[in-house]
Amino acid sequence: MPEEKKVQLSEAFYTQDEAAVLKKFESSEEGLSSQEAKTRLDSYGENALDAGKKKSLAMKFLEQFKDFMIIVLLAAAVISAVFSHDVVDSIIILLVVVLNAIFGVIQEAKAEQAIEALKEMSSPNANVRRDGHVITVKSNELVPGDIVMLEAGDVVPADLRLLEAASLKIEEAALTGESVPVEKELGTLEGTPEDIGIGDRLNMAYSNSNVTYGRGLGVVVGTGMNTEVGKIAGMLANEQETETPLKQNLNQLGKMLTIAILVIAAVMFVVGLMNGRTWLDMLLTSISLAVAAIPEGLPAIVTIILALGTQKMAKKNAIVRKLPAVETLGSTDIICSDKTGTLTLNQMTVEALYTDNIVAPATAEVALDNMALKIMNFTNDTKIAQDGTLIGDPTETALVQFGLDHAFNVTEKVAAEPRVAEIPFDSDRKLMTTVHQLTTGKYLVSVKGAPDELLKRCNQQLLNNEAVSLDDAGRKDILTNNTKMAKQALRVLGMAYKLVDAVPAEMDSASVEKDLIFAGLVGMIDPERKEAAEAVKVAKEAGIRPIMITGDHRDTAEAIAARLGIIKEGDDDAVITGAELNELSDEAFAKVVGNYSVYARVSPEHKVRIVKAWQQEGKVVAMTGDGVNDAPALKAADIGIGMGITGTEVSKGASDMVLADDNFSTIIVAVEEGRKVFSNIQKTIQYLLSANLGEVLTLFIATMLAWDTLLPVHLLWINLVTDTFPAIALGVEPAERDVMSHKPRGKKSNFFSGGVLSSVIYQGITQGALTLIVYKMAIEFPAHTAANMPELTSKALVDLQHGDALTMAFATLGLIQLFHAFNVKSIYQSIFKVGFFRNKSFNWAILVSFLLLAATILVPGFNDLFSVTSLDGYQWAIVGGTSFMIIPIVEIVKFIQRSAGKGKE
């Protein structure tokens, strides 16, 4: 087809008749010529998806340095190296930053594989008519106008407008979320294109869907990126990654620290100059303060905490692809969940059987000679593999499985009473009939299908194994029970039969499917997961709102949602369809988004719109799903959760986290772990910043008072030793008992929420004050035994006393932080309730940190390196006693806060 005649492949061909579509593509049912197909291939391009741009490894590495905190740390390293000539500090900072970047690249190494996975899903071959003959070509060689033949088991190779459909059923769950295969029909659909969703386009077959039954013929109307699955690929490629709350909080923290550091350093620099100190001396002092203020290990520590959380979640079947997803789960307000395969089993299952005017649950005992049981298994094309797997239409396999569950061995029964004739199912009469030769010599005409159509052909019904006349009361009872089951979102089929002396001469509906005996009804559904209802309940108790988003019909979605507890039974106002959603503008939808908990008959665009509407309300949104249709919403959500077993590679590739067991309740376990991780990061930040604030105040106030308290090497050692190990250990603190009783913190919260900021301030001030008190006491009341040695000169004595004071201040600041680490196990709860020694890693961290701190004073040779002196028992008692005071002081403040109602929100 010449370039100027190219058809717009985005047209709504389902609203046009077959002849018009063929004419538009200048094609016929005999197909294109090979030469025309080649010309069109050059014009339209291959029937394949765009690969998308890939980032190089170097680019991925460089992107790790965009974080604001990382930039601050790099600046500190440069300043430290250039002005203070403290290369050790600079090397340590740079090492932390580089290791953090490498770790980030490793976690992101799997990158975005969604589009590649979409390509892999493509059917490798297709049967087409070319030059009047049926030939097999590679699916990427298909062009618009090609005539494609479909049979059961085929994967649809491109978007097709159907020209023929003989009992054609296509499973489109990956696109629509609907678990039951769609019965395809010919004809032109009425209505505006926007109101006809993918699941309702019965005259179309879409790329990458599966033919489960029958056969068909269609003309290609969309290839490559112009298919529905191609549109999804395009949405994935254009969808921007959502910045996680963790990254937002770390950036916010970095900016706050930078401003605070610059202000304090500037003030201290000016005051120092006013006190007569040189500008170089004050510059070095200001840099020392910057080193003390910046928690250079924070990004690495946060990464380690997240990584440890990832390992724990993996053991609980939640595989994290991107580290920040661990923390993001903990802040989730909304969980938008796909129904099929996530909240349900994606497996049709018999739920009720109506015989003898009684509806019985599927678990009730059924007699082996029950005629309804026999019909549902005999009039059935399901194949049983050697390993016992059932192969066929999901509805029919559900019926066979029901028989197997009730000891009905269909293989043996059919072998004994074989099928000798049949009338296949078709969508016009909605019935299927098989004829079986019985051991008695008679023939059984077995019929199953739509109850209303079946009843038209029945004049008797089976009651207590006897055929009786089917009167109006009997018909009414059957139809009433059919309606009841349908309102429960059950897919209902009727069974009927008759006995004849010979195989009917004419196997057509008019002569065979009449004068039947009604045997019963069977109701099926894709059932909810047993654990899903409990998971929904726990989610609600945790303040998380579950939202069901599905391609299924409204009644089915409403019934499943009510059974799960997402909505109350009969709460029709909480359900909205995709067509109704189309009538709302983004502004109008934003105002009413909170009214709806169930979305039915939706498209991929709807799912993204729903996610973004909640995000505009300031909510942190998690989206779960397993199909291709879920991928754009998974990527748009704050955290996308894919299904590991039933999920497509597309959905897993677009997800931040994958559930290895496809268990909805695993999400709630992951949420608890996420909340624990955030809480532990808060504890770490509270510990580090209160400690650093204590260091800053000690140095700042001492400078203001012209005291010489701490050297840069002291601050560096404290930051590396007494900060790092306990901070990491706090990251693996067990979850507090009430972690799932609080409401989600949402997007508006940050690391300083929930009392952390006030705790950092008063605890930092307390640490600084206690350190300065010890220093002043050591100067005013020297206690070293060497002070009484007469041979010491006055200057030597002063230097010794100052050395003792400096050492005691150094030891106090280090020890006070180790004691304070016990305080931050909980913001408001008493350490006696939380438990001093529950966390073994924490206990070891405190012990190792103490030994490393003490070694600088007690191990010979370290004194000169750290410019400290040896302390006697009395001095150590002052240091230890004063440092321990941080625990009772914080306990008293916590008691007052709890009395005021803090910690209960």
UniProtKB/TrEMBL annotation:
<feature type="domain" description="Cation-transporting P-type ATPase N-terminal">
    <location>
        <begin position="12"/>
        <end position="85"/>
    </location>
</feature>
<dbReference type="InterPro" id="IPR001757">
    <property type="entry name" value="P_typ_ATPase"/>
</dbReference>
<keyword id="KW-0109">Calcium transport</keyword>
<dbReference type="GO" id="GO:0005886">
    <property type="term" value="C:plasma membrane"/>
</dbReference>
<dbReference type="InterPro" id="IPR004014">
    <property type="entry name" value="ATPase_P-typ_cation-transptr_N"/>
</dbReference>
<dbReference type="Pfam" id="PF13246">
    <property type="entry name" value="Cation_ATPase"/>
</dbReference>
<keyword id="KW-0106">Calcium</keyword>
<dbReference type="InterPro" id="IPR059000">
    <property type="entry name" value="ATPase_P-type_domA"/>
</dbReference>
<feature type="transmembrane region" description="Helical">
    <location>
        <begin position="286"/>
        <end position="308"/>
    </location>
</feature>
<dbReference type="Pfam" id="PF00689">
    <property type="entry name" value="Cation_ATPase_C"/>
</dbReference>
<dbReference type="InterPro" id="IPR023298">
    <property type="entry name" value="ATPase_P-typ_TM_dom_sf"/>
</dbReference>
<comment type="similarity">
    <text>Belongs to the cation transport ATPase (P-type) (TC 3.A.3) family. Type IIA subfamily.</text>
</comment>
<keyword id="KW-1003">Cell membrane</keyword>
<keyword id="KW-0597">Phosphoprotein</keyword>
<keyword id="KW-0813">Transport</keyword>
<keyword id="KW-0406">Ion transport</keyword>
<feature type="transmembrane region" description="Helical">
    <location>
        <begin position="685"/>
        <end position="707"/>
    </location>
</feature>
<feature type="transmembrane region" description="Helical">
    <location>
        <begin position="713"/>
        <end position="732"/>
    </location>
</feature>
<dbReference type="InterPro" id="IPR018303">
    <property type="entry name" value="ATPase_P-typ_P_site"/>
</dbReference>
<keyword id="KW-0547">Nucleotide-binding</keyword>
<protein>
    <recommendedName>
        <fullName>P-type Ca(2+) transporter</fullName>
        <ecNumber>7.2.2.10</ecNumber>
    </recommendedName>
</protein>
<keyword id="KW-1278">Translocase</keyword>
<dbReference type="InterPro" id="IPR023214">
    <property type="entry name" value="HAD_sf"/>
</dbReference>
<dbReference type="Pfam" id="PF00122">
    <property type="entry name" value="E1-E2_ATPase"/>
</dbReference>
<dbReference type="GO" id="GO:0005388">
    <property type="term" value="F:P-type calcium transporter activity"/>
</dbReference>
<keyword id="KW-0812">Transmembrane</keyword>
<dbReference type="InterPro" id="IPR008250">
    <property type="entry name" value="ATPase_P-typ_transduc_dom_A_sf"/>
</dbReference>
<feature type="transmembrane region" description="Helical">
    <location>
        <begin position="752"/>
        <end position="775"/>
    </location>
</feature>
<dbReference type="InterPro" id="IPR023299">
    <property type="entry name" value="ATPase_P-typ_cyto_dom_N"/>
</dbReference>
<dbReference type="GO" id="GO:0016887">
    <property type="term" value="F:ATP hydrolysis activity"/>
</dbReference>
<dbReference type="GO" id="GO:0046872">
    <property type="term" value="F:metal ion binding"/>
</dbReference>
<dbReference type="InterPro" id="IPR044492">
    <property type="entry name" value="P_typ_ATPase_HD_dom"/>
</dbReference>
<feature type="transmembrane region" description="Helical">
    <location>
        <begin position="805"/>
        <end position="822"/>
    </location>
</feature>
<dbReference type="GO" id="GO:0005524">
    <property type="term" value="F:ATP binding"/>
</dbReference>
<feature type="transmembrane region" description="Helical">
    <location>
        <begin position="842"/>
        <end position="862"/>
    </location>
</feature>
<dbReference type="Pfam" id="PF00690">
    <property type="entry name" value="Cation_ATPase_N"/>
</dbReference>
<feature type="transmembrane region" description="Helical">
    <location>
        <begin position="91"/>
        <end position="109"/>
    </location>
</feature>
<keyword id="KW-0460">Magnesium</keyword>
<feature type="transmembrane region" description="Helical">
    <location>
        <begin position="68"/>
        <end position="85"/>
    </location>
</feature>
<keyword id="KW-0067">ATP-binding</keyword>
<dbReference type="InterPro" id="IPR036412">
    <property type="entry name" value="HAD-like_sf"/>
</dbReference>
<feature type="transmembrane region" description="Helical">
    <location>
        <begin position="256"/>
        <end position="274"/>
    </location>
</feature>
